[in-house]
Amino acid sequence: MRFFVLGASGGVGSCLLEQAVARGHRITAQTRSTAKLTETEAVAVAVGSPTDEAFLRRHIAGHDAVVICLGIDRQGRTTLFSETTKAVVEAMQAAGVRRLVAVTGIGAGDSKGHGGWLYNRIIYPLFTRNRYADKDRQEAIIEQSGLDWTIVRPAPFSARAGSGPLQVHTEIPHGLQLRSITRAEVAGFILDSLEGARFLRRKPFIGHS
């Protein structure tokens, strides 16, 4: 398959590129800087802004799916996720590409309050709440797009895999707390979802308790 990946040089994006190539897929990797990615036979690098619809229209055509796994490191208000998603949806509709996977995370929609005590009480209110306000807008744009979408909501990122199998919930039980997941696990879940056409128009919440 051919995937167009936004945020390809980030934590999830770089894991996704590595695993996708190992599985025999081809990638067009969006980045703002050529210094962050190396072009190979399986990976084409597209340099441009993720909110630039004209740039996206030039590069999305001919792909089987688009993956949005952007991240930011600032704490203030942002519209990056919603503006990117609006431009992506319009470019996909123009190109006739229907399959979209977007990574939002713990704090979007009804996943809020399900990331464990440290995340719920400290990290979310002090560090990530502004980005999740925009990710709520992002999810609404995706749900209204008419595309074949999947919204992946990972638990808080960890350097080490949690114990036990990965939990996947499309309905979040009362009291559920998923406290950790690795970026590599998220990348693998994205690829499994794309290869198996799984979780269409669903919002799986994934991680370890």
From TrEMBL:
InterPro entries: NAD(P)-bd_dom (IPR016040), NAD(P)-bd_dom_sf (IPR036291), Polyketide_Oxido-like (IPR051606). The keyword Cytoplasm does not apply. Residues 7-195 form the NAD(P)-binding domain. Pfam families: NAD_binding_10. GO terms for molecular function: biliverdin reductase [NAD(P)H] activity; riboflavin reductase (NADPH) activity. Keywords: Plasmid. This is NAD-dependent epimerase/dehydratase.
